[in-house]
Amino acid sequence: MAKVIGVRFKAGGKVYYFDPGALAIERDDYVVVETSRGTECGEVCQGIHEVPQAGLVGPLKPVLRLADDVDIRRMRQNREDEQKAFTICEERIAKHQLEMKLVDVEYAFDRSKILFYFTADGRIDFRDLVKDLAGVFRTRIELRQIGVRDESKMLGGLGICGQPFCCSRFLTDFQPVSIKMAKEQGLSLNPTKISGACGRLMCCLAYEQPAYEYLSGITPGVTSYVRTPDGEGTVCEANLISGQVKVRLDNAPEVPKTYHRDQIIILRAATKKAGKRKPQSASRSAAKQQPQPAAKQQPVAKQQPATPAPAESEPAGERQAAAEGEAAKTGTRRRRRGRRGGGKKAANPAPES
Asked: What is the arithmetic mean of pLDDT over 263-275?
């Protein structure tokens, strides 16, 4: 086990682990740490705790010090200057007529460089833009192209559910989302209804999938044959979230009745193949029901008498010599017939012995 703290550098950003050392660090404190991008000041979102050593990637970097008033004042000043740099960069992009959209600007803690995040449909030649920005800010300039999901995470907004984006609130990593998850959760496959503001499939489909897998395991599926307090019947509809199941009873199939999944006993579970089986046509089913005519009896072929085996008294050596002589005569006769019939001679015939 390793003792670590969780530090976040941006709101809704990823949490990174650092070694607290002998410092007494608590949650909501600000610390100065050394990262791959240089010295950074971040907020402690997870206090001192222990994690398995196998879950750590590479050696932990130590915390340099607790942030004082000067460090916090510098960090806030950088946030104000980022807004000014954003406006200047947008003007320069319009001046160079580049097809790119500026998303965010980030100052390094020691102001050694400025990072500009943008989105674009393809590759952008921004070399002239970098030279122009370097002449304005007199520091190192970096431009990074990001995807549409990262853009939504940085900008934030409201989803179709009315809540702020999950990626900008608590999701630190983007998980792969597939259309299969929407099918298993019983959602409409209309792209406009299952896509987020970024145009990709909603992230909630991924982290809600384990809950739907558990509920589908304890809820009888459609076409399952079950036993209810009113008798046996077939499930025609099931709601995984509420647990309500509609059953078409055998003794009253006109109007299905609704039960909770705890009131139902599954007698025969539904299978995926049963739902995909196509109904047979009436002509095909009638043809199967008609009796098939008896098969005609085929005449039995006469068995040829087997070639008698050589007598045991004949020596094995004489039998082998006779077989080799017969094979030699047959081969010579076949070669002669081939030449008489106009067969082509080989290009390089083998010399006769």
From this structure: 74
